[in-house]
Amino acid sequence: MQRKRAFEPYDVVIASGGQVGIIVDFSELEGVKARFREGRRPGSHFAPGCCHVLDYTTQVPVLFEDGTYNVMRGLGIRKFKDADQVKRQALERMLTGA
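and the corresponding structure tokens:
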């Protein structure tokens, strides 16, 4: 039985501190780790260097618009339904490296 995910890759989210980001697909995570630094913000899941078991419910990889990524707790972010297309496209360009 597969668990229902709270977040899907490429959802635009907002952190409890107001930062906007995009959910990273597991297949792209290594590339994001190589290109961006890990930010430390409230709601991140583990201390730096800890192992992650990404389930997109309790541990969610997010690339933020400030050029940092974090594995966030599901309770520390929420879907950002009012994100405009310009912001979404900018985040997607950051993610793909275009």
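(Above: one complete record from the training split.) Residues 60 and 72 are 5 Å apart (CA to CA).
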